[in-house]
Amino acid sequence: MPQLFDPLQLGPIKLANRIVMAPMTRSRNDDAGCPTDIMATYYAQRASAGLIISEATYVSAMAKGYSRIPGLHSPEQVAAWKKVVDAVHARGGRIFAQLFHTGRVAVPQLLPDGAQPVAPSAIAINGKNYTDFGPIDYVVPRALETHEIPGVAAEFGAAAKNALAAGFDGVELHAASGYLVHQFLDASINQRTDAYGGSVANRSRFLLEALDSMIAAAGADRVGIKFSPRIKFNDVVEPDAEEVYPYLAGELDKRGIAYLHVAQQGAYEAHKALRPLFKGAYFAGAMFDQTSGQAMLDKGGADAIVYGKLYISNPDLPRRFRDGLPLAEGDSKTHYAKGPGGYIDYPEAG
Ligand SMILES: Cc1cc2nc3c(=O)[nH]c(=O)nc-3n(C[C@H](O)[C@H](O)[C@H](O)COP(=O)(O)O)c2cc1C
User: Fold this and answer.
1) Which parts of the chain fold into alpha helices (H)?
2) Which residue segment(s) compose the domain that 229 sits in?
3) Is 55 in the pocket of ligand 1 (CB under 6 A)?
4) Which of 31, 157, 195, 227 could bond 217 through an S-S bridge, CB–CB 3.0 to 4.6 Å?
5) Counted domains in the chain
6) Rounded mean pLDDT for each run of 10 residues along the chain, 350 residues in total
7) Is residue 249 part of a domain?
8) 70 pocket-lining for ligand 1 (C-beta < 6 Å)
């Protein structure tokens, strides 16, 4: 069975090892959604990962849902991302862009002309969005009109094209964490009665349209997808996750995409159910350490392991694992803070 330190062929790309850096929002972009110079440093510091998956990046102005997150819809954003990607490549790393639309997680203060956020149905999230303008209560979103939905799906393809123009090695569809794609999947959030609601196939339609637009732009072998079934976040419920995810795994398999990335953070044994249904690379994430990650590879449960929080404070994680070096503790207070503190000042071991 493969070791964490063994290479993995991912479509046309060879990953140096099977240690993947999880997509993580770190809120160091400017207000126009352009990555900043410290981000090139941050990602380059982590280039020894087999693959870096970028922080979630919005596909259009209406898709932005937090302060200081990045976009990939304007020429300025593409140019700024190119500096980040070039810095990672200069150190021999590989990086995919994670693409998302936040849907009802957005608040009008973050959207063009104070627009009402959009979602499958007019149901608000409970709680607040902690913006740079202060905490703002989530609002009731506007249910997308049926005729608008293909256009929103196509934004993912346009952003994928921009990602390749910026030099990214590929793109990941963010279908997790209760953002727009996940909102369509969840029967408790999606109460539509048209072709995008109701049955499992109908609720999956938006996801597959977005994915197909990304495949058309980048090729299936440069496209991955992330799920986090039943995650306790953004009011996700997913009463029928047991039906939704196997159906989707089959659809992904038909399309031959590069990888399926699953963060098992909710009450659904996703890895066991989904791994056998998908022939491409399977990435398992959430709560792994070196021992449990290697054990997952040993039993054939995954092809690569995705590490999140450990990567915040251990930029040289593969070397620390390989050489048995101590792991540094991160500080969650600086996860989404401004500036370099708690971001680019975690040193390499030794
Ligand atoms: C600060 C922070 C930001 C995150 N941002 C994202 C994100 O942008 N996209 C995403 O898919 N998951 C995001 N996640 C979830 C991680 O990708 C990962 O699934 C989760 O942290 C569990 O893995 P871990 O136990 O190894 O940290 C974030 C997690 C953290 C801690």
Assistant:
1) 37-45, 75-90, 149-165, 180-185, 200-218, 241-255, 270-274, 290-298, 309-313, 317-323
2) 8-334
3) yes
4) 157
5) 1
6) 96 97 98 98 98 99 98 98 98 98 98 98 98 98 98 99 98 98 98 98 99 98 98 98 98 98 94 98 98 98 98 98 98 98 96
7) yes
8) no
